[in-house]
Amino acid sequence: MINNQWYAILSSREVPRGRPVGVTRLSRRLALWRDATGAPHCIADVCCHRGASLALGRVEGDHLACPFHGFAYDASGRVVSIPANGAHAPVPPNFRVASYPCRDEHGLIWVWNGEQGEGLPDIPFFDELDSGFSYGELSEVWDVHYTRAIENQLDVVHVPFVHATTIGRGGKSLVNGPVVRWEGTRMTYYVDNVADEGQAPLRPDEVENPERLFSLQLQMPNIWQNRISEKLRVMAAFAPIDDEHTMIYLRFYQKFMGIPVMRQAVNGLGNVANRTILHQDRRVVLTQLPKRTELRMGENLVQGDLPIIEFRRKREELMRKPARP
Ligand code: FES
Ligand SMILES: [Fe+2]
Fold first, then answer.
1. Is the CB–ligand 1 distance for residue 123 below 6 Å?
2. Is residue 152 in a domain?
3. Angle, nearest 10°, between helix axes 146-154 and 260-285?
């Protein structure tokens, strides 16, 4: 995992009020619950008493109580009461588990993977999706590291092959560019796939006015959007489970249908289309070896793979970054 990043790990609807949930994310077992105000909290899901899963426990006010002997935890992971010792007994400071700063924004639950303290940065999101859009969401687990799942969305070369019957119809197999632009940790890539009529592909610096082209964006470390049009977007979050599994949340966002009942129907149809396309990808991506990628891993990449190369470079750079000041 990249240090000092907000990772989208769950859909907001998966963390209800009044009941904890347990998940594996970022290769850790985590317990999440909402306090009395509805704010989510996230701590390690292994009780410091005798190792039970806290996610099987109960929400008591702002606290999470272990199902085994009732130790109650606050949001910082500290035990605040030990029932067997009596309500007024002090709790030694070593009675605690790891905690992770946690937020609920844009319909997703985010955890901070890194050093804690004051002044954590804002969560970077595609903010335009918060105004006027509605969405439908689907999710599924893929048996790959999240780098492979993300790279599949950065792959402009695969479209006429994997999606020959859907979004890749027309056999536009020749890849001009693509043009990649970074703003901080956000990549925008412009796609210019064309029919092969014997010409050589344009180099990225030969593609004129890339802004007129179709574009997609990756926001490190794990969200992506396809800017199909002003009123239609596909967004995905790739939540790392462990080195060999990723939970994909895929959303169809639209604002062309304003009538509330019709909105849901349109979003549902959008999901059906998204699932079909996703499963065309899944069939091939699940066969890729190794299951995770690195900057230097001996693959034979081509010019059209530029967004993937840029992603690997940025990831490597962020992994090597020194700790927060
Ligand atoms: S194992 Fe959690 S309170 Fe005993
Ligand atoms: Fe695809």
1. no
2. yes
3. 110
* Cα 233 to Cα 128: distance, rounded to the nearest angstrom: 10
Give the per-residue SS3 of 71-110. CEECCCCEEEECHHHCCCCCCCCCCECCEECEEEECCEEE
Is the pLDDT assigned to residue 280 strictly greater than 60? yes
What CATH number does the domain containing 81 carry? Answer: 2.102.10.10
- Pair (164, 217) in one structural domain: yes
Q: Would residue 122 count as lying in a domain?
A: no
In a domain, 121, yes or no: no
- Please say whether the beta carbons of 280 and 167 come within 8 A: no
The token pair that represents 64 in the structure block: 């999470």
Amino acid at 227: R
**Tens digits of per-residue pLDDT, 7-66?**
999 999 999 999 999 999 999 999 999 999 999 999 999 999 999 999 999 999 999 999
Q: How remote is the CA of residue 160 from the centroid of ligand 2, in Å?
A: 9
Q: Report yes or no: 238 and 224 within 8 Å, Cβ to Cβ.
A: yes
Task: Kindly tell me if the per-residue pLDDT of 154 is higher than 90.
Answer: yes
117: pLDDT strictly greater than 90: no
Query: For residue 216, what are the β-bridge partners?
Result: 189, 226
- Residue 58, ligand 1, Cβ within 6 A: no
> What domain range includes position 253?
127-320
Query: What is the per-residue pLDDT for 324?
Result: 66
Which atom of ligand 1 is nearest to 52's Cα? 1
Residue where a domain stops, chosen among 113, 142, 160 = 113
The pTM for the full model equals 0.96
